[in-house]
Every structure is written in structure tokens, then in C-alpha cells.
Design goal:
The chain has an eight-stranded mixed sheet, sandwiched between helices. It is α/β, with parallel strands linked by helices. 29% of the residues lie in helices and 18% in strands. The mean pLDDT is 94.
């Protein structure tokens, strides 16, 4: 499916105007799902940019809104979360011409963006924002202690120092709130259903699966998928990979199944 890409400004968001890049399948349903997508970048990158993940998901017919969540208020917690939640609140009420009132509204993200998506889902629950239909967490960066077994692979793909620097920057405000590190949240019940994806050769595999297990234990509906090694999955957040990326079809299949299940619910 051809994907149309356009830049726009969400100019009525509560925290102020936010620039966004919108990916939309050319042949989309009358009520396509709207995914607010937070990009990767180890808490270090901002700016409007292209995203292979966003474009891939848009090929399913979804409208993917990738906002520049660090630029308006800054990149230190809780500022990105304030921006992300304001975008969610705005689209939940206004839609800004993206989809319609029947469209499912999802949040999602990769790596640092997955952290932010999980945090928005937690805050939506705490603020009784029932408009959130689901969360899509692709190798979310959740553990500031970087203590899992799989994280030992991070140096091999060039990410250990980058993630360490990113966590130091993100938490430099002196706060380690559960919204900043969702893996530390003691109460996960009641959050939106989740699609959680990682890969066998992903350094973030262990913390991703641990969070999925804790969500399931809390009664949250979770669809969990681990792609085989060799698909180039770590490249979605900038990890060095020798393999040609071949994860796209698998991700879209999982995403389409998740959207259907959420729609039925």
C-alpha cells in the first residue's frame, strides 16, 4: 500500500503547538485507527524525521502521527510525558482531521518512544481517560538500571553507552517516577490493552518480556510476540545490524491482529 506523508502542526495542543509528521495509507478505511507514535532515540533525539516503523505501520491502513515530543518543553522528564499526554488528550477530543470519532486511538513507540507510550497509557488510566484503546510497545526502554541479562548484548550493537547517556539525561531532573521508568510501577491494572514486540537478538528483550508478564499478571490484555533472531529488528532504534531488515511483514501482521482484537472489545 502506498503511504502518503505530510508534515503538520498540532496547533491547539494544551502545551502549545507541536510539529508532527503524519503517515497515512493511500487506501484507508473510512474509520482508520489513529496511532500516536513516539520515535526512538535513547531520550537524546528530537526534530521531525522519517521513520521506517511509522511508514511500515501506515501500510496497514492506519494513520500514524509521529510528533516531535522533545522539542516543545525539553527532553528531561517529565516534559516529554507532558507533551505526549497533551497530544493524546487533544486527539482524543478533536482528532484534528485525523480519522473520525469511530477511529480507534492508540499510543505506541519504539525504544525510548516505547517508554513514553507506556507512560502515557499509565497516565491515561490515572486520569480516567477512557479514549485510549490500546498501546503498542516495540522494544520499550524501561529499566534505568540496565540490569537485565539480555542488555549485555547492547555493547555489541553500539547501544550500551548511548542508552546509559540517554537515561542520565532523561532522569537528570532528579526524579525517577513510575511514569519515567514504567517497569518500576507497582500498579499496572486497568491500563489499555497492549501489543508488545521484541526479538530474540534484541538487548531490550528481557525488560520487554518482564513488563509484558507484569501487565498480564495485573489482568491487562496483552499480545506478546518475539521475532526470531536475524530479522534486523534492533535497527528500528539504531542498533548496528549485519542482517537485511525483514521484520516489516511480521510487525504489520501482529499490528493488524491487535487492532482487530481491540476493535472487537
Amino acid at each position: 500500500m502506498t503511504v502518503q506523508i505530510k508534515d503538520m502542526t498540532l496547533d491547539k495542543v494544551a502545551i502549545g503547538p507541536v510539529s508532527a509528521r503524519v503517515y497515512q495509507g493511500a487506501d484507508y478505511d473510512t474509520s482508520p485507527p489513529v496511532l500516536i507514535y513516539f520515535h526512538s532515540g535513547a531520550f537524546l533525539e528530537d526534530g521531525r524525521k522519517d521513520s521506517v516503523v511509522a511508514e511500515t505501520l501506515a501500510r496497514t491502513g492506519a494513520i500514524v502521527v509521529m510528533a516531535d515530543y522533545n522539542a516543545p518543553l525539553g527532553a528531561v522528564f517529565p516534559k516529554p510525558l507532558e507533551t505526549g499526554f497533551s497530544i493524546f488528550s487533544f486527539l482524543a477530543k478533536k482528532r484534528a482531521g485525523l480519522g473520525n470519532r469511530k477511529s480507534l486511538l492508540l499510543v505506541g513507540g519504539t525504544e525510548a518512544g516505547g517508554n513514553l507510550a507506556a507512560a502515557v497509557a499509565l497516565k491515561a488510566r490515572d486520569h480516567y481517560a477512557d479514549e485510549l484503546d490500546g498501546q503498542v510497545l516495540l522494544s520499550p526502554l524501561l529499566d534505568p538500571y540496565m540490569g537485565s541479562a539480555s542488555i549485555r548484548q547492547a555493547a555489541a550493537i553500539g547501544m550500551r553507552d548511548r542508552w546509559s547517556e540517554g537515561w542520565s539525561r532523561y532522569l537528570s531532573g532528579g526524579v525517577c517516577h513510575p511514569y519515567a521508568a514504567p517497569c518500576m510501577c507497582s500498579r499496572l491494572s486497568g491500563v489499555a490493552p497492549a501489543l508488545i514486540v521484541s526479538a530474540e537478538d534484541d538487548p531490550l528483550l528481557d525488560e520487554t518480556l518482564s513488563y509484558a508478564d507484569r501487565l498480564k499478571e495485573a489482568g491487562v490484555k496483552v499480545q506478546q510476540h518475539v521475532l526470531p533472531a536475524g530479522t534486523g529488528w534492533p535497527s528500528i532504534y539504531g542498533g548496528a545490524c549485519e542482517e537485511t531488515s525483514s521484520w516489516q511483514d511480521s510487525l504489520n501482521e501482529r499490528f493488524e491482529g491487535f487492532v482487530k482484537s481491540v476493535g472487537v472489545q
